[in-house]
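Protocol step 4 of 6: structure prediction from sequence.
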Amino acid sequence: MSLFLSYGGALQYRPEGIVRALSMLRDAGGGGRRGAGPVAVGPSAAQVAVSMVVTNVVSLSPVLLVVRRWLLPFGSVTVMYAVMALMPGAQTGFRNVPMLLSFVAAGVVSDLLIRRLRPSGERRAAYWAFAGLSAFATWSLYIGVASATGGGLPAVPELWTGAPIVAGLIGLALGALLLPNAVTLAPRMRRERHGHTR
């Protein structure tokens, strides 16, 4: 999925482009027809927002599917997110390293959340909390790193504060969609999940 949707991935943008997009920076200079008015410089706010949604769903869905059934070893999400960051890194010649590293850091945060919340099919509230908090943390880091390395906070607070909140709500919706009701595991499966197999 990451390959097929790479054209819509949020990790392809450089920090400066993200800050400009979330600042709604416009350039009235050349590049368009005379008298055509302002034209966008780099990706637009809408492009960045849609890319964040696509990447959020593609990266979080497999994690949510797996933690429904198994308690992942620490570092699993970090490794998965690092592998997912390689493709957009290669496509951009690794000119967007800060954004790639923000995604890997989000994997570490997700691993910490798994360790703390222990989400599972039996623990719906923890599962939903993980889904929302993991997405919120991922995109907060994304915008934070873009701001730190791309020239400062974007000029439109509603965009840079709202984007992580919307991402968190999308994560929560994914969690509710993938686990609408708590699941009761058979005793043998419960022992396997908690590492008590003989």
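Step 5 (inspection) to follow. The chain has one domain: 6-193.
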